[in-house]
Structure formats: C-alpha cells, structure tokens
Amino acid sequence: MSLGAINLIKKIAHIRKILLEGSRYKKNLIHGALANAFTQAVPLLVLPILTRLYVPDDFGTLSIYVAIISILGSVATFRMDWFVSATRNRFRAAVGLALGLALLICVLLASIVMGALFLLSSPASNTGIFSAIRPVAWLIPIGVAGYSLFSLTSAWYVRQARIRALSSSRMIQGVIGAAVGIALGFAGAGAVGLVGGSIANTSAGVVKLFRDASSELFSAATRIRSGYIKKVAAANARHMAFSGGSSVINSMGLFLPTLMFGLFFSAHEVGLLALAQKIAIAPTSAISTAIYQSFWGEAAQAKHSQRNDLQNTFKRTSLLLFTLSAPLFLFCLAGPLFMGMVFGGKAWGSTGSLLAALAPSVATQLVASTLSPVITMSGGASWVFFWDCARTAVVALSVIFFAFSGASFLITVIAYSAVMAAMYIVLYFKAKRIVAEHFAL
Q1: How far apart are CA 309 and CA 26, in angstroms?
Q2: N or C: which end of the chain has fewer CB within 10 A?
Q3: How distant is the alpha carbon of residue 378 from its chain centre?
C-alpha cells in the first residue's frame, strides 16, 4: 500500500474519531444520519428505474394504499409507541406494547371483515379511488400489521436512545424494499409490485428489531400480570386517549388529502403528486429522521432525569433544521428544470410543477414535525390533538373548495401546501414555547 493511501486512511480515521466524540445526542445524530443517508440513497437511486418500470397510475395506487394503512395503523397502535418511548420503567413500556398489540388485532379483524363486505357488495367499490385500490386491497391488512409492529418496536429502541440499531434496520429495509420493487417491476406486476416492495421494506425492519430485542421483550412480558396492565391502563387512560386520538387525527391530516385527491382527480395525477412528494423529502430525509429520533430520545431522557439542558439541544437542533430547510425550499422550486429529464420524459414531466408547489409545506414540516414530540412529552397531548383536528379540517376544506370550484390539480396542490405550511409554523412556535417553559436553564 502506498504512503499516500496510508495517510488517507489515517485522516479518515481521525475525522471519524472527531465526529464520534462528544455527547450521546451527537453520536446518535451522526450514526443515524449516515445510516439514513444510505437508506434514502438506495430508493432514490432506483427511483428513475421504477418510473420506467411502472406508470403514474401505479404510483397513485401505492400512494392511496400507503394513506389507508397509515390511517388504519394509527388507529391500531393508538399512539402506544409514544407511550412506550416516553416511559422510563421497562415493565410499563412492555404494557404499552401489549396494549398496542391487542388494539392491532382488533383493528385487523375489523378491517378484514368490513373491507371484504365492501368489496363484495358495494357498487362503489368499482368506481374512482376504490377502483384504483381494488387490485391491492387484499394486501391492506398485511400493510397495517407491518406498519403497526414497526412503530411499536421502534419505540422500544427510541426509549433507550438506541438509534444505531434503528439505523441498521433502516439500511436493511432500504436494500430489500428496492430489490423487491425492481424485481416485481421487471415481472410486470404493476401496482402490486410497488406495494410488495413497501411491504418487504417494513417486514424486514420488524424482523430485525424483534430479533435483536427478543430476549429483553420476552423477559419483560413474562413478568407483567393482567392486574398490572389494567392498573397502568387506568392510570394513563386520559393521556392515552388524547395521544391516541391525536395520532389518528394527525395521520388523517397527513394522508386524508391523498384520499381526497383520489376522489376528485385521477390515479394518474395522484401518482404524479406521489413522485413529487418522494423527491421533496429525499434530499433531507436522511438527516431529518436521525435528528427526529435523536431529539426524541434526548427529550425522553431529559424528562426522566429532570435535566435542564434540553433548551440548548432544542436551539441547536432548530438551527440545523432551518439551515437544511432553506436549500430544500430552493430545490423544490427548481423541480420543473429536471424532473421530466430524470424520471422519464412526458409521462412524468408535470411532476416538476407539483414539486415546486410543495416547497412551503415540505420546508416547514421538516422543522416543526422533527421538534414536535417535546409537546406531547411535556403534557401537551391535548393541545396536539386539537391542533391536528384543526389542521385536518382546514386542509380538507381547502381541497374540497378548490376541487368543487373547478380549479386545476396544480392550483389545488398549491392551496394544500400553503395551508399545511401555516399549520406547521403554529406547531413550531408551540414547541419552542414548551421548551422555554418546561426546560428552562
């Protein structure tokens, strides 16, 4: 090996040592960012391949499918993942997992029965949005189960600030999901191929996390009794109700617009919007996910230990997020210049204008959503619940108004983005106020 190569290796090792020295928050953030960068890079790199294997209608079906399982998944977990991550006692955390699994089983059974009855007996199942989702409807229970189990198991790791394990899981998920999506695309599976890739992605994460934590989960589960479960549930009923209700409303606020776009516009247009949303979050999602998980873990630890250094962490994190949001905003605005060329010409060309329309909502969501867990952890679950209700109502009314007024799909998306941005600004200032009041230096 040459002297130059040896010196390069030494420099890389030195840089890595500097980066990984310091607080747990910094270490978690860096490890998480690097792993998530890889995780996001894989599907992003294969996206130009997928847009040539699948048509916009397939992406529209996937988008509607994801919206449905996300809403049902939030009902199934009823925000038990927040309860698990926020509690210090591992037996209470295990109770949260048990309650979450019980709710999941109930929701799965209900969704299977109701879905089967609707698809078999209702004439509406062959029209509009329902016609688009019909080919993959049988995969909805599998998707809900995967979504819910991954949320619950991830919370167990977040509670202990074990971000490296979550990052490792996401790396595996990214590779497996992309590989399955491409393989099924070459096989001509259509929308089922994209949904299959999504299910493979989530399933890989669930298996990895459950396997790594199986011994401690089993140990905690065998020591809790039904009486203790009832006691914990009764003592935290109000908090769970607000957190769970907020979770459902939050998911509806995020994904109901997709379903409404599906009602008023074609699956083709919904597919174009789905691609624009993927590209909008791709540049910063790697580090934003790491920041979210690291900040969430620090907020939980600060609550448990009564430390007062969270305010400085909040300021540093806010500055980092604002720094990231500026180039993200400009990147989205530049969408019309490159989207058609990169993703397959005429079929995807109009996605660039949709990407530009999403710029305000994407930039503000990056900042506000990443910092919002501190509100719930500080007793603000009821406030978040009402904020979610307000956002869902305003977003729904804006989409309905513009759709019924005959506005184009692009104008409707612009209105949707503006409303979302305004609501996220309110959320950020609430989080900032909470930190100032509850974690004063």
Answers
A1: 14
A2: N
A3: 22
Interaxial angle between packed helices 226-235 and 237-264, expressed in degrees from 0 to 180 and rounded to the nearest 10: 70
Would you call 212 exposed, middle or buried from its count of C-beta atoms within 10 A (0-12, 13-18, 19+)?
middle
- What tokens were used for 53? 């294997």
- For residue 276, give both structure tokens: 């624009």
Model pTM?
A: 0.77
Strand (E) or helix (H) holding 218: helix 191-223
User: In whole angstroms, what is the distance from residue 95 CA to residue 225 CA?
Assistant: 9
Angle between helices 267-305 and 310-333 (to 10 degrees): 170
DSSP H or E run through 385: helix 381-404
Quote the DSSP letter at residue 89. Answer: -
The DSSP letter of residue 23 is -
The whole-angstrom distance between residue 382's C-alpha and the CA centroid of its chain comes to 21
Instruction: State the angle between helix axes of 409-438 and 267-305 in degrees (0 to 180), rounded to the nearest 10.
Output: 0
